[in-house]
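Objective 1b: paired records.
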Amino acid sequence: MTPDEKDTLLKPNTLPARYGIYIIAVWSAVLGLLNLIRVVYTLSDTVITDAGGVWLNLFVYRGAHLLFGILFLVAAAGLWLHRNWGRRLFLVCIVFFFGVSLNGLFTPSAQTLPARQKWWLGGRYLLSIVLAVAYLNLPAVARRFQPVAEETTTDD
């Protein structure tokens, strides 16, 4: 019996666990592409005001988006192939990305946003992370990432 058949036997009116994994893999790929697009799109936005601000902008801000873009794309490939390293990489990336995104809401450049909007954005980020982390850690879903035990036969 395949894992999909076991999933549907336990819960007859639900989709197999692999479809949720594919949705999260696509989401990871979209996050990766958006981060890479943001790096390319903001290359022309550099305004040299002081040396410290330029270095912070170039290496920390763009470096973080470049790193997250690459890591999310790699995690998407791992999730799509149901590899445990892809699951773990996605979980680590999404938690750190939440911290970076939340920090970005409270930087001086985001001071034009009303406080209520900042909290709503932070709440949506948190909700999206909690849902993905909770889903990927469900026993039925986490089982799909475990390596299949090979049957060994012994010749007597």
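Objective 1b, second protein:
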Amino acid sequence: MDHGPYPFGFADDDYRQLLEQVRDRDLLADLEHLAGLANELAAIAEAQQRIILEFADDDTPGGNRAVAEILLADTLRKLEASRFEFDRRLGLYLRTAGHPLARRFPPADDSLRERIRAVKAAWPIDRFVEVVLGADLTPTKPGQWTCRCPLPWHEDRTPSFVVFGEGNTAKCFGCLRGGDVLDLTKYAFGLDRVYDQLAQLERLAGIGKRGRS
């Protein structure tokens, strides 16, 4: 059956195989998560810009303004990457969701936004890093902590992992991994699917049994 032309330059058989593997709910979950992450990163960027303005006269190497400028540049790069990935996955979803070959899945029983809000409320970023990842946090300023990186495959000799309470995210400036509690769950437990990350966070928080994808 010919449903061409196919996006991304796929031939008929290759595109058919791709569509059989696409899970609509996973794509939608990723889109929801990426949109939320972009909003959180934008909030962090605004906070870092305020710090730069507050310490505009601080020309000390390694001072507050210099550190804030480095953090802001990194945040903006990550924000751009998250928005690019959002657009890429949205395009994939829109191109496959209504295609005759796409597999159909029943609608989710739970509101994805509600589940994400619930696990983030249950696991503020500092509590998650301490309790789940087993890190010893040292406060550096109100709402910000640092520690040795608690993520797998990184032997951190100096505290390079920073936890940002205002944006509810964390970042390792050694291995360059980080994000919100869903991202950290991905790295810590090797879970690539957002639904699996949610399920793990719900189990850890003792949140009632949820439907599985």
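Residues 143 and 166 are 6 Å apart (CA to CA). The first helix runs from residue 12 to 21.
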